[in-house]
Amino acid sequence: MGMKIMTGGFLTTVQDLGRIGYQETGMAVSGVMDQHSAKIANILVGNDCGEAVLEVTMMGPSIQFTEDNVIAVTGADLGFAINKQPAAMYRALSVHAGDILEFKALKTGLRAYIAFAGGLDIPVVMGSRSTNLKSKVGGFQGRKLEAGDEIGFRAPVRVMDYMERRVAETEIMPTKEIEVRVIMGPQDDCFTEKGKETFLNSEYAFTSELDRMGCRLEGEVIEHVDGGDIISDGITFGAVQVPSHGKPIIMMADHQTTGGYTKIACVITVDLPKVAQAKPGVKLRFKAVSIEEAQELLHEENVRLASLRDSIEKEKNEETIRFKDAGALGSAAPEVQAAAKAALTAAFRENALSPAGDYIYWVPAGTFRIRVGEEEFTVELEKETFGLR
């Protein structure tokens, strides 16, 4: 089958990158609140970045696996454990039928993400598996997960290649104060110069009024030219609305499709995860950047994610071989070195000692003799090569 929900936690839903292209019909985009963490989790288990995950808010669920698979947990530290033993985040882990996953306590951040190799067996509705709670559309029956729910895996695996390399750097969750970069507009002309200065130079705090639709902030009043009401127009994830009372509201993943309040700015894509992971009381300062800066920052993030996937999955030959002592091979002709490294790589990949065309055999642990043509070399490899122990 896949897994059975024993307890649903505070708010656990199925989410992917959202239901794109339907706002004109009144359907919200929805999707994960912290795209960065969700994408990392999917990369670690070999999925496309847009595969559906479980988004876990504040207090996590208890899940019993009924089928083997590989999972990864990223985002907030909610005390992730398997069979009551603390488990590593930001790393691919094998789970087996009968194992129980749970979260013990909220430590840092607000939302964790669980990715499952091969994806979840959830219907696609309007191009997405995301849960829209308000419309009761998508995800698991259009609602949060509850005790007794069962979800299957589409293409589970028992183990994956390069498990030792399926690890990412742990992201730092906001705890006290964050800087959030914004692009000013589209209605920044509805605010006085004093109001815009207040917005960019004041400290705000997240209140307890935060959910998947939006986050209300407490702080200095932002002055309008002539009130905060406008003819309703489109809203996007990260839009900063300022009603007539002058207190900003950041619109989040389940935001309505249109709104009738002035929008002074919009949070740039790469900083939305900071907002999604901030708990009540966390301080916030806004900083204006250009569209070009925002685009460059997003490009840099996409490059980092692509590099993470490449570091895990891309077949490597000579780059993967790391010598502790190359001996005479270090001064051999480049084509001989390349042939030796390729042969060593093939030997490890295929768990074979005699790849075609070359002869390799172990001496002590970590030391090998390899013949390339008429030449024989003795080399010692670094322990980390292919997880050698």
UniProtKB/TrEMBL annotation:
Keywords: ATP-binding, Coiled coil, Hydrolase, Nucleotide-binding. GO terms for molecular function: ATP binding; hydrolase activity. It holds the Pfam family CT_A_B. InterPro entries: CT_A_B, Cyclophilin-like_dom_sf, PxpC. Residues 24-304 form the Carboxyltransferase domain. Residues 291-318 form a coiled coil. It comes from the Bacteria. PANTHER family: 5-OXOPROLINASE SUBUNIT C. This is Biotin-dependent carboxylase uncharacterized domain-containing protein. The lineage of its organism: Bacteria, Bacillati, Bacillota, Clostridia, Lachnospirales.
